[in-house]
Amino acid sequence: MSLRRYLPHYLMIAPFIVLFAMFFLYPIISGLYYSFQNWNGVKPPAFVGIANYQKIIASRDFATAMRNLMTYVAITVPLGILVALGLALLVDNFTGRWANIFRNAYFMPVVLPAFLAATIWRWIYAPNFGLLNMILGWFGRPSVNFLNDTSTMLYALVAVDVWVSAGFNMVIILAGLKNIPVELYEAARLDGASKRQQIVHITIPMLGPVLFFVVTYGLISAMQVFDKPWLLTGSSFTSYGGRRNALLFPVMDMMGRAFGSVRFGEAAAYGFILTVAIIALTAAMFMLRRWKWRK
Amino acid sequence: MRNLNKLRSGVAGLVALGMIGSAGAAAAEDVTLQYWVYSDFAQGEALALQQEFIKEFSAKHPGVKIDIVGKGDDDLTAGQVAGAASGQLPDVFMNAQSVGAQLVEVGALDNLYSKWMAMPEEYRAQFDAEALKGCMPKPDELYCLPYTGFGSLLFRNLTVLEKAGIDTSKPPATWAEWFDQMKKVKAAGLYAIPDDTLVFNSVAEIYATSGGNDSWGFDWANRKTRIDPAIMTTVLQKFVDMKDLNSSTSRNDQATKDLFISNQLAFHNIGPWVNPTYEEAAKTSGLKYDFVLIPGDTAGKTGGIRSYEMIGVAPGPHADLAFEFAAFITEKSQMARWAKLLSRYNANAAAMAEPDVSALPLIKLSVDAAHGAMDVAAPYFVDSVPSCYNSTVTDIAAATADGEYTPEAGAKEMISQLNACLAQ
Lengths: 295, 424
Hints:
The complex is a heterodimer.
Chain A: H1 2-34, E1 37-38, E2 46-47, H2 51-58, H3 60-92, H4 96-111, H5 114-125, H6 131-138, H7 153-178, H8 182-190, H9 195-206, H10 208-223, H11 227-232, H12 250-260, H13 264-294
Antiparallel strand pairs in A: 1-2
Helix pairs in contact in A: 2-13, 3-4, 3-7, 3-10, 4-7, 7-10, 10-13, 12-13
Chain B: H1 2-29, E1 31-38, H2 44-60, E2 64-71, H3 73-86, E3 92-96, H4 100-105, H5 113-117, H6 121-124, H7 129-133, E4 145-151, E5 153-157, H8 158-163, H9 175-187, H10 200-210, E6 218-219, E7 224-225, H11 229-242, H12 254-261, E8 267-270, H13 275-285, E9 289-292, E10 305-313, H14 319-329, H15 332-342, H16 349-352, H17 355-358, H18 361-372, E11 374-375, H19 387-401, H20 407-423
Parallel strand pairs in B: 1-2, 1-3, 10-11
Antiparallel strand pairs in B: 3-10, 4-10, 5-8, 5-9, 6-7
Helix pairs in contact in B: 2-15, 10-11, 11-19, 11-20, 19-20
Subcellular location (chain B): Periplasm
Organism (chain B): Kaistia soli DSM 19436
GO cellular component, one term (chain B): periplasmic space
């Protein structure tokens, strides 16, 4: 009786369920299966237990990649959101044509293909002739090799990342800003609140859910960083990570193991380690939020 | 009326069946081969010549169509690995010998030995024996036909050398002479050389100034590196010595070419593919440069590495025809035309000996460079090199240049880490 009653509903969600099972569930389950196998992508897999996981965790490159990732995430996520918030507050002050111009200008890097963005930044960072070094030269500063000096490489990547991601985050924050009732600001102004006090006591608390989304999404994206460091360091499947692996990140190492060394079992295990780390971090974010709500 | 409709339907059905049948017969005759090449061979004059080869081959093989597809280095490898997994491999393809083992492992490469042996001796004798040996991990296994290749060269900016007071008429004959010139260039306020610790191939190039094939590459039977600690100590000392002389850009960076073209960099040790850029700069901005052999530690020994791109054939129903096409494009006449167009050395020794090919200065020197050079990652087609190998070499070379290890300690640490990496 209930099946007949809900049959149309099941039929309507069936396309989603089928596609979800084919393109999400199956790859995840098969990935988990292959992470316990010695598998080169073609030949029959052979069960190796947790050997792939042990091999990855014991490897020198994994430690380097994780160390780089933690530093990168700790800098790029807060900095990216601060810049996006600043831009959104700036653009929010404009109306009409100027608001559109600024919004589109800041959003432009988001739609730029990664290889093009990397090419532009390789030119900006180039020693001696690059735009940045030319500017440094005007102030009598020596040329800096941003993409080969291990003390600057990570920050050079962060700058590119913030440049790309700020526009996307700005649009989301801007939408959040538009939803804050103007009456709150009017009341605050009547009470004599300064602009800074309005931002701290009205804007940021009212943006809470939006900022939570932006932070969570930023963390998940940052944990999977791949294309920008890959392109900035001119990496290939057999050689990646730049000078002294200063821009080596987990997804790059995973790709190298998969296609450079045809160790797909190992790459699958790598993917699962990263997935667990992302899930743990996201869960921590949600728990923190719930705890703050309860407080 | 109903009967007429039935008749019409019957006739339409028969016509459709007939059409399907004739299409099936045509499909049996017509074959389309997928031919994957490097993306720079799929544009401009290179593509035009490749298409001419295809046209000539198709003229001799009616019904055979060849689709040429250009792909970047990583896309070639990823596409061939994924193609092997899905059973959708291209029939004939290019790639580097250095990724050959991965392709053999996933079954993307056919063993061509029996087809090769069935070819006339006249054809087989055309190839450079060393280049061919690189395709043969065992006497009865041949996984590729060697194609274009390189022996690395030393590009010299003559203006920079003259500014440094160096006599450019005599290229450096030994490492000591070369290093002395580098110091003079630095003293003149210019850069001597790119940072050769940044790229695996450039570390190998400097290693080749002291060592050779007998102390480089992999001992796959014992899963150990063949790098000699004493030679690597010497080489790491060279990186320490060059630390203050280099441009801190890698040999592959556009910035390195810019420095060379703008008369700020004296030497660029790299393969011949940079020559078109420098040739153009000579025409448009008056760049004065030449290319010579990379000097080794002793007179007569040359440094540098060699490597080949290869033509591979996928196993499958079209493997025989695909091999025929691969043999056609690697044959002397085609390889001579290919070499003349690109001014690039290739593995067909007979083509390289053609008077109008060997007269080209870049090819002439490339032949000498390749003969004296070290194979970059031999032996090929045995086992895939773990991802940690190349990064360990460049990391420890860079760390030693930065002063974190003494050359002796760096060499010891490198060999220990490489053995651990290969043992994984």
